[in-house]
Write a structure and sequence with these properties.
By secondary structure, this protein is an alpha/beta fold. It is built from 27 helices and 16 strands. Pfam families: EAL (PF00563), GGDEF (PF00990).
Length: about 725
């Protein structure tokens, strides 16, 4: 929301004129009263003009209409009372007092119209009761200090009616002030409503001071100071519509009520109680009033405790998620707004649980709630106390990191923590996977813009692969519409013959002979041309199309390789979605039998993150391996598996990720991770295959480290099977001997 900047030309002119005229009245006592009264009149007239102009610019048109009418009533009251003072009839006096009273009524109505329409149901009654509590405290003070004194003194009837009318008017102004404060119309002190509230408070104070002077003193020394307060009140009441005219602003949300305004009701109850004690003691009337006061104080204390508890419960309902106990979207938006007002640099993490719908479908909503609750617990356990954790949607969470924390480290901790703490659902164990998008806060950020950037990063992380994080980059674009269109085109692509398979040889590093081939799917789109796997595989994974595509690639690869001489094996990738499908073993064995390929010539590659979830994948892998099919862990070292998992997995091959191969530079540092993977595989008696070999130096270093098999562009790019077999034949023919 935009904030009030009192720099408009009318505001500057008004403030300058008021300051100049009041300085003049200070130096020229003879013209002091005319200047004071004239200033109030002119400010009221300006207030009428700007209030009605604000009707067109403000989201609260009726409030400004009523305020404009109130200021007009004050102007009319001035002229009517001036007429009475110039030997007018007594009816003019009563008309002037009535018009002045109407001003107070209209101001109270304007304040109620400002917030009451937005408050509904029981909240409306609670809101009105809070106003009544504060007004009652004010009425107690007015009764003791003004009304009681007026009745026992020899005040003339006309003057008494004026005083009583102004007391009622002051109580109405108090009601107007409370209506704005308790309704949350002043969410922060720099809001445009500030001068309106300040003007009402100053109007009430000066009016009370005026009445007190009439009742208790004949001195005129305080008149100038009181008059100056009236001028200040009129000025503030005029600056508020100017601020609204300068720039239109949306309605203030109900949850923007500041915490300090809630103490107004408590202070009112305490004021009433203290007055009862003071009066009982000073009037020396302990019996029977002493016992009644004590009992009333106990009642007030009980009301205050009840109100505090109810208020806390209401706040929790507004800003907290009832399932996880974390903040909800409203609570997160409040935390972002507070951090922005404080100027604290920070970051936002947006988290989406991967495949949460599958858990809900497989185990039911109660199990889904358990997963959400446990994730919320893990989230809270890895961040600082001052960080805000929130659940903002079904399976979407967010973390606001104010201050100087490193969001990448926090994202890594979250992913590691949830991977290390699987959730028990009956007899099964489910490991939670998540995708995290993070972005840094920037000066001038709105909540919407911050969430948009984090959402883009989160979607990019989800596309890149399950259980990962991504930082927002300005080059990121929202691909959801494009991915949706791609998913539509991908449906039926295999049946239309648009999907085809290329093969990259897996060779012995020392001699270059092909021991097997990795089957890699490609998509020849009729309009887009060849679509990169990085573009359509994530879409297929999220939409569930990956299962049918995977079976199509498996059938094509097994059928192609069954007739290849020399009995090389074929390696086919399995996605996490396929691994979680109960019918996978049956479908794979059916394809193998139909193609005629021997099971020991098939290697199924699974990613490291997919096999961490032992409930969904471990039994499947064991059963596939029992039929002679070998299992390879793809991109080993980039996921979250541990030695504990690895020793229990039915794995035959570890594939060294291409990023580790790229680090090989002939130094111990560059070879550290690749060597660690090779040594681990040797201890566990597993084969290693290095991916992404591009230079002869990398091949020699891998061979020296103990890795004897690899693949990469040094040997061959992915090709159609016929070209791959021809290249292998030519290699053998060119080999000496």
């Amino acid at each position: 929301m935009s904030r009030w900047r009192p720099v408009s030309r009318p505001a500057v002119v008004l403030v300058s004129l008021v300051v100049a005229t009041q300085l003049l009245s200070l130096t020229e006592p003879a013209v002091r009263r005319p200047i004071l009264y004239g200033s109030v009149l002119l400010l009221d007239m300006a207030g009428v003009w700007f209030s009605f102009r604000a009707v067109r610019h403000s989201p609260y048109p009726w409030s400004w209409r009523l305020i404009g009418l109130a200021r007009a009533s004050a102007v009319a009251a001035f002229f009517v009372l001036l007429w009475y003072l110039q030997a007018g009839p007594s009816a003019a006096y009563w008309a002037g007092i009535g018009l002045r009273g109407m001003m107070f009524v209209l101001l109270a109505a304007a304040a109620l119209a400002y917030r009451l329409p937005d408050i509904r149901g029981r909240s409306r009654w609670a809101y009105l009761s809070e106003i009544v509590i504060v007004m009652s405290a004010g009425a107690m003070a007015a009764w003791y200090f003004v009304i009681g004194k007026a009745f026992v003194s020899d005040t003339p009837a006309m003057e008494l009616s004026r005083i009583l009318g102004y007391v009622v008017g002051d109580l109405l102004v108090l009601a107007a002030t409370c209506a704005l404060l308790l309704g949350g119309a002043l969410p922060y002190l720099s809001h445009p409503t500030t001068p309106l509230v300040a003007g009402l408070v100053l109007l009430m104070v000066t009016d009370i001071a005026w009445n007190a002077t009439d009742l208790h003193s004949d001195a005129q020394a305080d008149v100038w100071l009181i008059g100056l307060g009236m001028v200040g009140a009129s000025l503030l009441l005029t600056l508020s519509p100017i601020a609204s005219v300068t720039r239109s602003r949306p309605r203030v949300p109900l949850h923007r009520r500041p915490a300090w305004s809630q103490r107004l009701v408590t202070a009112s109850l305490l004021t009433g109680a203290m007055m009862l004690i003071a009066v009982t003691v000073t009037e020396n009337d302990m019996y029977p009033w002493g016992g009644l006061v004590i009992c009333l104080l106990l009642m007030v204390a009980a009301v205050m405790v009840h109100m505090t508890v109810s208020l806390r419960q209401t706040q929790d309902l507004v800003v907290a998620d009832p399932l996880t106990g974390l903040a909800n979207r409203t609570g997160l938006e409040d935390a972002i707004a507070i951090a922005a007002r404080r100027g604290e640099p920070g970051a936002l993490l947006l988290i989406d649980l991967d495949d949460f719908k599958l858990i809900n479908d497989a185990y039911g909503h109660a199990a889904g709630d358990t997963v959400l609750t446990e994730f919320g617990h893990q989230l809270r356990s890895v961040v600082r106390a001052k960080d805000t954790c929130a659940r903002i949607g079904g399976d979407e969470f967010a973390v606001l990191l104010p201050g100087d924390s490193v969001p990448e480290v926090v994202a890594q901790r979250i992913l590691a923590s949830v991977a290390d703490h699987p959730v028990r659902l009956g007899e099964d164990t489910v490991v939670i996977h998540a995708s995290i998008g993070l972005t840094d806060g920037q000066p001038g950020d709105t909540t919407k813009e911050l969430m948009r950037r984090a959402d883009l990063a989160m979607y990019a992380a989800k596309r890149a692969g399950a259980h990962s994080w991504m930082r927002h980059d300005p080059s990121m674009v929202d691909r959801r519409a494009m991915d949706a269109a791609l998913a539509d085109d991908l449906t039926g692509a295999a049946a239309r013959g648009e999907l085809f398979v290329l093969y990259q040889p897996i060779v012995t590093i020392e001699g270059g002979a092909a021991a097997g081939y990795e089957a890699l799917v490609r998509w020849r789109h009729p309009v887009r041309g060849t679509v990169a796997p990085l573009d359509f595989i994530p879409v297929a994974e999220r939409t569930g199309l990956i299962y049918d595509i995977g079976l199509h690639v498996l059938e094509r690869a097994c059928t192609d390789m069954a007739g290849v001489p020399g009995s090389p094996y074929v390696s086919v990738n399995l996605s996490p979605r396929q691994l979680q499908t109960p019918s996978l073993v049956h479908d794979v064995l059916t394809v193998v039998r139909r193609s005629g390929l021997a099971p020991d010539r098939l290697v199924l590659e699974v990613t490291e993150s997919a096999i961490v979830d032992e409930q969904s994948g471990l039994a499947t892998l064991h059963e596939l391996r029992s039929h002679g099919i070998r299992i390879a862990v793809d991109d080993f070292g980039t996921g979250y598996s541990s030695l504990h998992y690895l020793t229990r997995l039915p794995v035959d091959i570890l594939k060294i990720d291409r990023s580790f191969v790229a680090e090989l530079d002939g130094t111990p540092t560059g070879a550290a991770i690749a060597e660690a993977v090779i040594r681990l595989a040797q201890v566990l008696r597993l084969r290693t295959i290095a991916e992404g070999i591009e230079t002869a130096e990398q091949a020699r270093e891998l061979l020296a480290l103990g890795c004897h098999t690899g693949q990469g562009y040094l040997y061959s790019p992915p090709r159609p099977l016929a070209e791959a077999l021809t290249a292998e034949t030519r290699r053998r023919q060119d080999q000496p001997g």
